[in-house]
Recover the amino acids of this structure.
């Protein structure tokens, strides 16, 4: 009976402790989401991210209507009728002194391409006169045509047929196929996987620092305002810290999900017809403009829209999107909880932001090192360095997210996740001991020796 009664008492104490933590979580969450800064950033963030997608498309559709005329004055005769009209570029040839041709062309608002006659060598120099800065596509096209013509002339002078050189060129299509242990084969896109890996790792790095700093500043504000002395009278420091960390984590996750939802909503509104023109066609047109130079050099290549659809298909077939989403949420929360407990301990030990530098550097080094190793991990995702860094809890939130797009065995993800949770519990316990004493100390500069004494109390 005594054992049962003891167990019941322990359970009731645990329930009472959880109720206090939930109340602190509720207070932290509601207090922060009701702030004007949270509301403004929640709306402003998606607007800025949607603008990064919409504005280039919109400005490209506006800028595509103007026709640029280029007068070509070729003293060599090598490039006569070699420049073909492009979508928004019209070439016409003139035969007059360069000073007069320049004056006439610029007065008419046109450009002048002047190719002087060389005294000894082949024509490799040209001058492009313009009132406004010429676009990159025009400059690239002129240089590409001149290079091709001069190369053909030099080959003919050596008795070599340029058509044979051209026909000998081939495009190699290398397809990467992953073979699982059960023999299942799946096509993958290494370029997409590398981009997705680096993006996921950097995103987690950014959110850990942003919301972890909020925890530290929140603790410092309560400490400086002496509010914490009132709160500590009714709850334990460990409960206060745990509630604050989880509450801010929920705020960060809420803001992130709202950013994703609102960004897609704003882009969808523009696509539905609120913006100028059709979004999908404008986006395809913008992609074609960005790959114009590559298409000029390889006229028989696949168009940009087909290439984009192929890449999307490879992305969906070669990467487990469900595992990516679940892992991102877990490592976002796990990494945040781990570092937020350390940030909260720093906030409880100091009084001013200037004093935080000596403690923030050791905490930040593992995260900074993880970002610095992105190139190595992306190049060798299954190497020993990447494997061990994805298991060490202080680097696993960034490194494991970089490895997952390449395909990671589930036992490695489970082991990494378990180590991350255990380390979070341990750092929360250690940080709680620092927090318990530090929040009641004012006007004293704390060093590492002092922190060690607090841990031994």
């Amino acid at each position: 009976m005594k054992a049962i009664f003891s167990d019941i008492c322990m359970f009731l104490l645990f329930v009472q402790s959880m109720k206090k933590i939930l109340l602190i979580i509720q207070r932290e969450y509601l207090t922060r989401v009701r702030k004007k800064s949270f509301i403004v950033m929640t709306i402003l963030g998606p607007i800025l991210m949607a603008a990064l997608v919409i504005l280039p498309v919109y400005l490209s559709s506006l800028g595509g209507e103007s026709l640029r005329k280029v007068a070509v004055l070729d003293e060599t005769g090598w490039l006569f009728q070699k420049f073909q009209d492009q979508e928004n570029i019209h070439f016409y040839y003139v035969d007059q002194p360069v000073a007069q041709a320049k004056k006439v062309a610029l007065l008419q608002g046109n450009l002048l391409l002047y190719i002087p006659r060389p005294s000894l060598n082949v024509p490799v120099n040209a001058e492009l006169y313009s009132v406004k800065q010429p676009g990159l596509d025009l400059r690239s096209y002129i240089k590409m045509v001149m290079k091709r013509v001069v190369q053909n002339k030099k080959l003919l002078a050596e008795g070599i047929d340029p058509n044979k050189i051209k026909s000998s060129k081939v495009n190699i299509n290398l397809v990467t196929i992953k073979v699982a242990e059960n023999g299942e084969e799946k096509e993958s896109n290494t370029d997409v996987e590398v981009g997705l890996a680096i993006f996921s790792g950097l995103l987690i790095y950014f959110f850990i620092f942003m919301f972890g700093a909020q925890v530290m500043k929140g603790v410092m504000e309560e400490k400086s305002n002496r509010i914490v002395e009132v709160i500590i009278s009714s709850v334990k420091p460990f409960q206060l810290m745990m509630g604050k960390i989880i509450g801010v984590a929920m705020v960060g996750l809420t803001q992130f999900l709202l950013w994703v939802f609102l960004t897609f909503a704003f882009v969808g509104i523009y696509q539905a017809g609120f913006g100028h023109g059709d979004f999908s066609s404008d986006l395809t047109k913008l992609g074609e403009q960005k790959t114009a130079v590559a298409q000029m050099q390889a006229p028989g290549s696949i168009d940009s829209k087909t290439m984009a659809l192929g890449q999307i298909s490879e992305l969906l077939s070669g990467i487990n999107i469900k595992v990516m989403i679940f892992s991102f949420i877990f490592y976002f929360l796990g990494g945040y909880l781990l570092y937020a407990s350390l940030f909260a301990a720093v906030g409880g030990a100091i009084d001013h932001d200037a004093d935080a530098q000596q403690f923030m550097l050791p905490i930040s080094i593992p995260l900074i090192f993880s970002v610095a190793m992105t190139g190595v991990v992306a190049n060798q995702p299954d190497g020993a360095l990447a494997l061990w860094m994805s298991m060490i809890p202080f680097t696993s939130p960034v490194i494991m997210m970089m490895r997952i797009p390449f395909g990671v065995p589930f036992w490695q993800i489970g082991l990494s996740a378990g180590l991350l949770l255990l380390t979070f519990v341990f750092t929360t316990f250690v940080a709680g001991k620092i927090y318990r004493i530090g929040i009641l100390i004012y006007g004293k500069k704390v060093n590492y020796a002092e922190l060690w004494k607090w841990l031994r109390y």
Notes: Strands lie at 68-74, 89-93, 111-115, 127-129, 176-179, 185-188. The chain has two domains: 67-167, 191-259+272-456.
